[in-house]
Design goal:
The chain is mainly α. It has one domain (about 10-265). It has ten helices and no strands. The longest helix is centred in the first third of the chain and has 36 residues, at about 60-95. The chain starts with 13 loop residues before the first helix and ends with a helix.
Length: about 270
C-alpha cells in the first residue's frame, strides 16, 4: 500500500470498523462538550451564531482565563484532531487485522490523543500568557489586527518549511513496513510518534488561529476540515494552503491598518 492509498470504507476489516466507530464516538463527544460549554438559553439563531463565533473569554484573572482556555482546548483534541487521524488509524487497523490484532488500534489512538492532550494544555497556557500580556500592553485594535495578520501569515510560511513536509509524510503513514504484530508498548510508541508528527504539521496554524482570536467553534470546524483535507490530499495541498494563509494574513493586516491609510502613505 502506498502512502497515497487509503482504506476504502467498503473494504474495511472488522477491526477497522471497530476503530472507525470508536473514532466517530470520540469526535461526537468532543463536539458535544464544546457545544455544552455555550451559554444556556440562547434565544434565536443569531444569538447561537454569535456564541459560536465568540473567542475564548478574556478579561479574567490568569487562573480563570487558563481554565476557560482549557475548557476549549481539551475537547478540541477529539473534535478537531481525531477526524484528521482517521486515515492513519484505519490504515493501521487494516494492517494489524492481517496479524490477528484487535485492541492495538485503540492503543495507537490512546498514544496519539495523549500527546495532543498534553499539547492542548501547553497551547492553552501559551494562549493565556499571550492574552494576558497583550491586555497589559493595552495595544490599540489596529496593532492587534496587524499582529493577528502576521501570525496567520507565519502559519502560511510554515507550509513551505521542509519539516512541515516531513511531518505531513509521517502523518500519512501507511504502516507498510509492519510485518508482524507489534506489542502493546510498541503500538503505544507508534501512536505517540504519530501524535508528534501531527503536531509538527499543525502547531503553527493552531497557535496562529488562537493568537488571532479565532479559536471558536466556527474556526475549529474550518481548521478541522482543512487539516483533514490536507492529510487526505497529501503534499499537493500544502502549497495552495500556504498561499491562502499568506493571503489571509496580508488581508487581515491591511484591513487593520486601513487601505486608505496605506494609499495615503504611498502617495505621499
Amino acid at each position: 500500500m502506498s502512502s497515497d492509498a487509503q482504506p476504502h470504507p467498503s473494504a474495511l476489516s472488522a477491526t477497522a470498523w471497530v476503530t472507525l466507530l470508536s473514532l466517530l464516538g470520540l469526535i461526537l463527544a468532543g463536539w458535544a462538550a464544546l457545544v455544552v460549554a455555550l451559554p444556556p438559553g440562547l434565544p434565536d439563531a443569531r444569538a447561537l451564531w454569535a456564541a459560536l463565533c465568540q473567542p475564548v473569554p478574556s478579561g479574567m484573572g490568569f487562573t480563570e482565563s487558563y481554565i476557560a482556555a482549557l475548557a476549549v482546548w481539551l475537547p478540541m483534541v477529539p473534535a478537531m484532531m481525531v477526524p484528521s487521524a482517521i486515515p492513519m488509524a484505519l490504515a493501521f487497523a487494516d494492517r494489524i487485522e492481517r496479524h490477528g490484532g484487535a485492541i492495538r488500534p485503540l492503543v495507537l489512538l490512546f498514544g496519539y490523543l495523549g500527546v495532543w492532550l498534553v499539547a492542548a494544555a501547553v497551547f492553552a497556557f501559551v494562549q493565556t500568557v499571550g492574552a494576558t500580556g497583550l491586555a497589559s500592553l493595552r495595544l490599540p485594535d489596529k496593532a492587534l489586527g496587524i499582529l493577528g495578520g502576521f501570525a496567520i501569515g507565519l502559519a502560511g510560511l510554515w507550509q513551505f518549511a521542509p519539516l512541515k513536509r516531513l511531518s505531513l509524510a509521517a502523518c500519512r503513514h501507511d504502516f507498510s513496513e509492519i510485518v508482524d504484530r507489534p506489542t502493546i508498548v510498541e503500538t503505544l510508541r507508534i501512536g505517540i510518534q504519530q501524535g508528534l508528527a501531527c503536531i509538527g504539521c499543525c502547531w503553527v496554524l493552531m497557535l496562529a488561529a488562537a493568537f488571532a482570536g479565532a479559536m471558536n467553534l466556527v474556526w475549529m470546524a474550518v481548521l478541522a476540515a482543512v487539516m483533514t483535507a490536507e492529510k487526505l490530499m497529501g503534499p499537493r495541498a500544502t502549497a495552495p494552503l500556504g498561499l491562502i494563509l499568506l493571503g489571509l494574513g496580508l488581508t487581515l493586516a491591511i484591513a487593520a491598518v486601513g487601505p486608505s491609510a496605506i494609499l495615503s502613505y504611498w502617495l505621499g
